[in-house]
Amino acid sequence: MWPFFLCIFVCFMKNTMLGIAFQLEGVKMPKQQNYLPTQAEYQQLVKQYEPKRPLLKNCLRAFFAGGIICTIGQFFQWFYMTFFDFTEVTASNPTVASMIILSMLLTGLGVYDHIAQWAGAGTIVPVTGFANTITSAAIEHRSEGYVLGVGGNMFKIAGPVITFGVFAAFVVAIVRILVEKLGVI
Amino acid sequence: MEKFILAFVVGGAICVLGQILLDVFRLTPAHMTVTLVVIGAILGGLGLYEPLIEFAGAGASVPICSFGNSLVNGALTEAKRHGIIGVLTGIFEVSSAGISSAIIFGFIASLIFKPKG
């Protein structure tokens, strides 16, 4: 039983590592190709006119927006811990569900996109951003019909999170169990 | 009351981390969220994420990293009960609330609201 799982695991690891490395390379270093001199000049020109990203301002905005969203989440958590029988850790489940409902309402009313434009990662990183991508994709593709439009496109943007989350969780859990079986911890 | 401040600070810090991934490392939002989920899963596997949730409350459980953590947690608790096959059967056990509510309410939203703009 064990060698079999180990074998599968090693194969998976090799492929994903290669895949991730390849992807990062593709995203981070698209300019490392061999350009003709004129093309290189053009790339320089493009770099010169590319608007500088205001890092500090963006980070401050992300901090405040994310902080406020998490404070709202903390309010829900406090609510569930005070009025229902939840502990600190188990209360995070209903909290996440409440945040998702809130985000779906805001997305449907068209408010969330305005906040997101201001806040950047502050609205993408919390789970509300995840709900926002699902809801907005569902609403956007509604004109294509409920089965092929809404059902088919709902996870168009949120899919990578679930795919990689589940796969990473699988790998991590297998590693953890292996390490425990081997008696390292 | 200090719980709220902790949630604000820790949640904000995780969002700043995301913003840095976007701006400095030039990742797309999708790559950024995937990176955070994988980080959360690894921290969950090392057993470091639960203490963070106990420390910061919603500041740690609302950002998307907690999704990776809850996937690992579900897999590990089910694996303790049923052995290695529990990794497959339990992976969505804890995070079911997030995914199912997102699907259900996303679908309801598409029934109610019309696209804007």
Q: What's a concise summary of this model?
A:
The complex is a heterodimer of chains A (185) and B (117). With 185 residues, chain A is mainly alpha-helical.
From the structure above, extract its key features.
heterodimer; A: mainly alpha; 2 domains; 9 helices; extended; B: 117 residues; mainly alpha; 78% helix
Structure characterization notes:
By secondary structure, chain A is mainly alpha-helical. Chain A has 2 domains: 100 residues, no CATH class; 31 residues. Chain A has 9 helices and no strands. The longest helix of chain A has 29 residues. Chain A is extended. Chain A starts with a helix and ends with a helix. About 5% of the residues of chain A have low confidence. By secondary structure, chain B is mainly α. Chain B has one domain. Chain B has 7 helices and no strands. In chain B, helix 2 runs parallel beside helix 5. Chain B is globular. Chain B starts with a helix and ends in a 5-residue tail after the last helix. The relative contact order of chain B is 0.11. The chains are: A mainly alpha (185), B mainly alpha (117). At the A-B interface, helix 1, helix 3, helix 4, helix 6 and helix 7 of A face helix 1, helix 2, helix 3, helix 4 and helix 5 of B.
Query: Structural class, from helix and strand content of chain A?
Result: mainly alpha
Taking the sheet with the most strands of chain B, its summary is: none
Count of folded domains of chain B: 1
How many beta-strand runs of chain A? 0
The number of distinct β-strands of chain B equals 0
**H-E string of chain A:** HHHHHHHHH
**Low-confidence runs of chain A (pLDDT<50, min 5 residues)?**
21-30
The proportion of residues forming helix of chain A, as a percent range, comes to over 70%
Structure class of chain B: mainly alpha
Quaternary state of this entry equals heterodimer
Query: What are the secondary-structure elements of chain B, in order, as H or E?
Result: HHHHHHH
Biggest interface and its residues per chain? A-B, 82 and 82 residues
Instruction: Describe the global form of chain A.
Output: extended
Overall pLDDT of chain A: 81
Strand content of chain B: under 5%
